Amino acid sequence: MTTINDNPDPCLCGSGLTYAECCGYYHAGERKPPTAEALMRSRFSAYARRDVDYLLATWDADKRPATIDFSKETAQWQKLVIVGTKKGGAQDSKGIVEFKAYYAQDGENYFMHEISRFVKSGYYWLYLDGVIKAAGKVSVTSDSGKNAPCPCGSGKKFKRCCGR
Question: What are the tens digits of pLDDT across the range 86-103?
Fold first, then answer.
């Protein structure tokens, strides 16, 4: 039987580590994310895995919804790109993480650009809320094509990144 920490797949959070070496520890409750960015990455990974328990547990109680319903969710989350952070370090009590999340749905590729706020409660980071700055379809113009650099900023060709 495979456990979370035996999973050799790359972690969806974009850390470059395997799921077992990265968000698997957080999702299994073996470790707590030490920074707001680490919590953001683990929440993205949890969202992609539809891990309702982890998402609710890492949401500030004053802002947390009663439940999360993934029954109609059709998006396949592909990757997370951290645009920037403000505070949110191990010694901070508040933090902001700006990110772009990419997903496929109904044969099309989309992105969501959000700025999320985090608070530290005791020793643990919690998601407070977020503001979506932009969202839409990832498009390739005739000028750029599938061999052009991906507009997400990954440094890869579009066909090897968001164009998959």
Answer: 999 999 999 999 999 999
Which residues have C-beta within 8 Å of that of residue 162, sequence separation ≥ 6?
78, 79, 102, 109, 111, 138, 150, 151, 152
- Say which residue the tokens 């990419």 belong to: 102
Q: Are 110 and 136 in contact (CB under 8 A)?
A: yes
164, 149 Cβ separation under 8 angstroms = no
Give how far the C-alpha of residue 108 lies from the chain's centroid of Cα atoms, to the nearest Å.
19
| Distance (Å, whole) CA 41 – CA 36 | 9
8 Å CB contact between 81 and 154: yes
Query: Is 0.85 surpassed by the pTM of this model?
Result: no
Q: Are 33 and 42 in contact (CB under 8 A)?
A: yes
How distant is the alpha carbon of residue 95 from its chain centre?
16
Do the bridges between strand 94-105 and strand 76-87 make them parallel or antiparallel, or are there none, so unpaired? antiparallel
Q: Which long-range contacts (CB under 8 A, 24 or more apart) does 57-66 make?
A: 58/33, 58/125, 58/126, 58/127, 59/126, 59/127, 60/119, 60/121, 60/126, 60/127, 60/128, 60/129, 63/127, 63/128, 63/129
pLDDT per residue over 9-50, tens digit each?
A: 899 999 999 999 999 999 999 999 999 999 999 999 999 999
